[in-house]
Amino acid sequence: MDDVTKLKVEVLHYEALERQKEQRFKQIILPIIVVGILLLVVLGIAIYLAIKDPTGAGYKAGQITLIIVLFLALLIGGLLIFVLIKAIDGLYKLNQELPKLGKTALGGVVQVEEKLRTAADASVEPVLRAKGFGSQIKQVRKSIKDRISPKGKQDE
After folding, report:
1. Which helix (DSSP H) or strand (DSSP E) does residue 94 occupy?
2. Is 134 part of a structural domain of the chain?
3. Burial per residue of 73-99, b for 16 or more beta-carbon CB atoms within 10 angstroms, e otherwise
């Protein structure tokens, strides 16, 4: 790869990485953080409200059951948040590795693009030469006609 191609690949790769970072934050990390925090706050408030006002034995048993269910939901929510954090970590590690491969692929695409342009230019060159040769023949023919024809018939 020549320097111009390498520079083009670097610029395209940098732009793609910046877009990917922005999208990863907006589409993955931020929603998980917001949902996780909301889940923890709602479950925490529910547990607090269940503990806050215990009255009567039947009510207390219901409250204990509710606390156990909410606590299990809190544990499951915490587990889900842990799994999502690990998934984000895995995606982060994958995104560290993929740009190297993407950069290699992008370099190949840029090289193919340059070779196709070179081939297209080379395929058009004979046509342009033929047109140029044809126009030269027309000029020579017109010049010969002008020299041979009488002066009154030059308008033809």
Report:
1. helix 57-148
2. no
3. ebeebeeebeebeeeeeeeeeeeeeee
Domain with 84 in it: 3-122
Q: Is 150 helix (H, G, I), strand (E, B) or coil?
A: coil
Residues 5, 11: Cα–Cα separation, whole Å: 10
As a whole number, the mean pLDDT across the chain is: 78
Say how far apart CA 61 and CA 101 lie, in whole Å.
Answer: 59
Nearest to 4 by CA among 116, 103, 114, 151: 114
| pLDDT at 154 exceeding the cut of 60 | no
Contact 88, 28 (CB under 8 A): yes
> In this structure, is residue 147 part of a structural domain?
no
Give DSSP secondary structure letters for 21-40: HHHHIIIIIHHHHHHHHHHH
Domain count, the chain: 1
Q: Does residue 146 form part of some domain? A: no
**Residue predicted with more confidence, 61 or 120:** 120
pLDDT tens for each residue of 33-58: 888 788 778 777 777 776 776 565 45
List the Cα angle 142/147/148 in 5-degree steps. 100
Q: Which two tokens stand for residue 102?
A: 């993407």
